[in-house]
Amino acid sequence: MSQQSATVDKRPSHQRASRMNERQGAGHTPPGRPAGETAGIAEPSVSVRELDIAFGAHKVISGLDLDVSPGEFIVLLGPSGCGKSTLLNAIAGLLDISDGEIWIDGKNVTWAEPKDRGIGMVFQSYALYPRMSVEKNLSFGLRISKLPKAEIDGRVARVAELLQLDGLLKRRPSELSGGQRQRVAIGRALVRNVDVFLFDEPLSNLDAKLRNELRVEIKKLHQRLGNTMIYVTHDQIEAMTLADRIAVMRGGVIQQLGAPKEIYRKPVNRFVASFIGSPSMNFFDGELRGSAEASAGRLPAGPVFQLGGSGAASSVPLARYDFIERAPAQSRAAVFGIRPEHIALGDQPDGHFSAEGKVDLVEAMGADTIVWTSLAGVPLTIRTDGETEIRPGETIRFGFDPASACVFDAGSDLRL
Amino acid sequence: MSLETARPRGPHGESAALAFRATEPGRAAGSAAAHERSPTRGRKPRHLTIGRIGLYGFVAIAAAFFILPAVVMILTSLKTMPEIREGSIFALPESFDLTAWIKAWSSACTGLDCDGIRVGFWNSVLITVPSTILSIAAGATLGYALSFWRVKGADILFAVLLLGAFLPYQIFLYPMVRAFSMVGLYNTLFCIVIVHVIFGLPIMTLIFRNFYAGLPVELFNAARVDGGGFFRIFWNVMLPMSTPILIVAAILQITNIWNDFILGLVFAGRENLPMTVQLNNVVNSTYGEREYNLNMAATILTAAVPLLVYFVSGRWFVRGIAAGAVKG
Amino acid sequence: MTAPRKRLSTATLVLLPFWAVVIAAYIGTMLWTVQISFTASKLLPVDDYVGFAQYERLFSSTRWIVSMQNAVIFGVLFITGALVLGFLLAVVLDQRVRFENTLRTIFLYPYAMSFIVTGLIWQWLMNPGLGIQKTVRDWGFESFSFAWAVDRDMALYALVLAGLWQASGLVMALMLAGLRGVDEEIWKASRIDGIPAWRVYLFVVVPMLRPLIVTAVVLLSISVVKAFDLVVALTNGGPGISSDMPAKFVMDNLFTRQNIGLATAAATVMLITVAAVLVPWIYAEYFRKTRKGAAA
Fold first, then answer.
1. Cα–chain-centroid distance for residue C28?
2. CA-CA 20 to 30 A from A320: which of A21, A291, B211, C216?
3. Which of the other chains make 3 or more beta carbon contacts under 8 angstroms with chain C?
4. Per-residue confidence (pLDDT) for residue A57, from 0 to 100
5. Which CATH architecture has domain A278-409?
6. Taking a contact as any Cβ pair under 8 Å apart, which residues of chain C between 111 and 170 contact chain B?
7. From CA A19, how far away is CA A14, in angstroms rounded?
8. Could you tell me the pLDDT band of residue C294, with boundaries at 50, 70 and 90?
9. Is residue B45 part of a domain?
10. What residue ranges do the domains of chain A occupy?
């Protein structure tokens, strides 16, 4: 234990990381760890400290911190080019970092070879060795590390059984279906008997049906093995369903790190809000009026959001809205966001916002229907059930509970 | 022979394009197999139009331009000297007379020696085999290193090599001669092999680099996570996938080295002169009456090896031409 | 924070011998050649520096000037000729002609043969007493002349003809590959628009084949610069110096005339000429759009 503490002491300051964790208030995140406090709290399985990565003059990641607890399933989510795969490759040791440290299972592996990091990795294109049988693919790494043959055979057999690859061991990758190939790729990571698995968009080369099946399989696998998993994807459904915590990335920076529900309900900024959810959140530019200036009339007292126009129909009461700090006293430019699925049709209870609009377009999607209308001159999508009979041209009544909305600062895009 | 069915704009035009596309040496191998299912087309027969006649006229003239020299060469080699003097260059030989061939092979004079072109043949074999193997080994290793391993300055190394591929030999030759003389290796078999490896390095590196650059990086990454080192990944993962490019490289180097004249002339030394140099000596340095039948027989013999490679390799030969030249 | 750098990797070690070859065999020899060109070296290199004297001598040499002119004429005719002929052959083969495979084999086989063989074949065909000229004259065309290789005015064109015979197939093969890669829908669209095929070839297809044309030009240019074997085998630079080429000029002065100062000066001029064309091209083709490092 003392040795472990010493290890911890050597680390650079991580105040920045802990501040971030506090802000998101994520229950999973281990708190900042001055040496004394580590007792009873698990050492993070993977820990990235002040990571900088640059390709030439182009900075891809700068000052990134991330802690992953043992057994945690963490998803790196973001649009392409956000640095999520770069971060994963850096953790794997597949590219040289410019600055920072990477720790895996309490060891500083910043400059260790990929094979010495105690990781297994699954790639988007499967990356199976084409000239080797499934069995040879699975055992390649074990043969390189010169494990006894009996041990190799045992591990391969176990993994093959786990992933239902028993009958395929003698086949070449080219003789397998896409789903089978990806299972072999997962198997290749599993035979390494490591604690940390890295997945680089493993399902994006599969068709929709297989993707769903394998997603469930990966989830089950995680529940069964309890390993730490770091999973890169741009698919928010994968992220929401698989993750214990999601790290939403943009421009090489983690925008928000938190449980899927939290990311969905309480996005820290406008980017996260717009990236999560489909169809995307509706946004309105406007003005946040402090309680002091609340308009008179039938509206309850408290802050309101002025959608741009004037009158009751364009003022959203924010009494039920949960500000991060407290409601601002002064007026300020802000952006109001509401998810399509949080908008209800028909009359609204007290305290909710209510308006009318003409239907422009109806998209029936089977289980759901997306209704396009407008509010204060801005297009608005509403997600409703698949049974609705609404037709274009009709005027509908709709509204929402302001508590489920988000208000962002117009300048910083941060949620208020 | 599958390409005969590969017509443009036919229902299978697309796969034909793939099989023939020079830029993708790796992929073409697979689609070649698809060709064997040669489909019969249910198109309406074409009517003979003026344009069509003109087309075939052009084809006939072009074919004659390309084929006649070879025909003349063969005919001449089978004639006797009196026949050559009397008759037309296009006339068929009266009898198939193989004396010129036998003489060319075993007793034609190259300067002072009269042991025939066979000496050059075996010299060329001794030069071509090790040069081909070594230059492919060097090019494959360097191409692999440049494609997958980030080594500082690798770009500069590659740039210099590329530039070297295009520069005239004349700029390098004399200092090389001096350097080899200094270490006492000038005019040896070893010398000419090394020179071929050095001058084959750019093209070999280029085609292997292009090939490996076309493979997914993830494969390399997977092998690294599995613990493979430089040579392990090269030997167990990359080389087994490299068969197509190895064939292309072999075709390219065998023909290039066999057809070389200038390097053999300068570096091989009297004892090891390759066939091309000996052929030129037979034809251009003889005094007295020229034996054209013998000359043509010797010429055909010299061209035989690359022609054999050409006819056997078929489509691969074309890919060899393109592989080195197309950017990666 | 200073990170411990990686130890010397295997890849770096593997590159070392290649660096040695590149530095010694390419850069070193090149610099040495340039150095000799500034000396008064005759049979052996000496350290007697004479500035640009060898270059002055070189450019006052008729033989060198003729060689340069020949290289330009040969280069232009050979490259444009091979491009045009090769492209026509490719287009013809693209017209669903019969025996396409056989024809392609016929058009390309000369490319498998060396320039020495090519030169010797054409030397025989152009033989003044027994070649094609004699046969055609025997048919009654008394004024027919095809003894180009021994004709001062025609020797250079003999080289062009033999070169075209050898290399047009290369262009054909490259272009055919390109034509087969042209999207079928372009042909469908042009048929619906009623655009004649030749126009489509000229204004749509040719621009699409630009990279392949560049490739072909580069390959052909290399053979022009290296044109030595063909000249030796077909005309040996003659008659006189009428078909001499820079490469042959250098070789003669290096190895038979013991004039290495002059030869290296000529080689340096060749180097500068080629480099002036190549450096921008290599930069554009290989480094502008090079992919980011392997692991990126």
1. 25
2. A21
3. A, B
4. 82
5. Beta Barrel (2.40)
6. 111-117, 120-125, 127, 130-132, 134-135, 138, 165, 169-170
7. 9
8. very low
9. no
10. 2-118+194-273, 278-409
Do B171 and B85 lie in one domain? The reply is no
Q: Which residue of C has its CA nearest to A93?
A: C295
Nearest CB to C97; choose among B55, B147, B174: B55
**Same-domain pairing of B83 and B191:** no
Q: Where are the beta strands (DSSP E) in A130-206?
A: 196-200
CATH number among 1.10.287.1260, 1.10.150.240, 3.40.50.300, 3.40.1160.10, domain A2-118+194-273: 3.40.50.300
Q: Which domain holds residue B22?
A: 2-33
Task: Give the tens place of pLDDT for each residue, A155-192.
Answer: 999 999 988 888 899 999 999 988 899 999 999 999 98
Q: Do B303 and C112 touch (CB under 8 A)?
A: yes
Section B173-180 average pLDDT: 92
Determine the Cα–Cα distance for residues A213 and A210; give it in Å rounded to an integer. Answer: 5
Q: Choose among B167, A5, A289, B130: nearest CA to C247.
A: B167
Q: What mean pLDDT do residues B143-156 have?
A: 88
Backbone angles phi, psi at B94, to 5 degrees: -70, -40
Model confidence at A310, pLDDT cuts 50, 70, 90, reads low
Task: Of A160-164, B98-102, B208-212, B257-261, give the lowest mean pLDDT range.
Answer: B98-102
Per-residue pLDDT for A138 more than 50?
A: yes
Q: Over 70: is that where the pLDDT of B7 sits?
A: no
Residue B280 contacts residue C116 (beta carbons within 8 Å): yes
Instruction: Give C250's contacts in chain B (Cβ within 8 Å).
Output: 168, 170
Residue B200 domain-assigned?
yes
Confidence bin at A291 (pLDDT 50/70/90): low
CB-nearest partner of A141 from B150, B218, B226? B226
3-state helix, strand, coil in chain A (%, to 5): 30, 30, 40
The hierarchical CATH code for the domain C33-284 is 1.10.3720.10
How many whole angstroms separate alpha carbon A266 and alpha carbon B178? 77
Q: How far is B228 from chain A (nearest CA, A)?
A: 7
Q: How far apart are CA B46 and CA B25, in angstroms?
A: 34
Q: Is B86 on the interface with C (CB under 8 A)?
A: no
Is pLDDT of A407 > 80?
Answer: yes
Tens of pLDDT, residues A334-354: 898 999 999 998 888 877 888
Residue B1: pLDDT above 50? no
Contacts of B174 in chain C (CB under 8 A): 29, 32-33, 36, 254, 260, 263-264, 267
**Nearest CA distance, B152 vs chain A (angstrom):** 12
If asked whether residues B61 and B199 sit together in one domain, one would say no
**Residue A104 belongs to what H/E stretch?**
strand A99-104
* Inter-chain residue contact A92 with B225, CB threshold 8 Å: yes
Q: Closest Cα of chain C to B271: distance in Å?
A: 18
- Structurally, chain B folds into a number of domains equal to 3
**CATH (domain of B317):** 1.10.3720.10
Is the pLDDT at B35 greater than 70? The verdict is no
- Asked if A2-118+194-273 and A278-409 have one fold, the answer is no
Question: Would the pLDDT of A260 be above 90?
Answer: yes
Smallest CA–CA distance from A52 into chain C, residue: C1
Q: Is the pLDDT of residue A332 over 60?
A: yes
Query: Which residues are B113's β-sheet partners?
Result: B110
| B12 and B84 housed in the same domain | no
Domain ranges of chain C: 33-284
Query: Cα separation of B107 and B116, whole Å?
Result: 4
Element (H or E) spanning B173, and its range? helix B170-182
Q: Based on the domain organization, do B82 and B159 belong to the same domain?
A: no
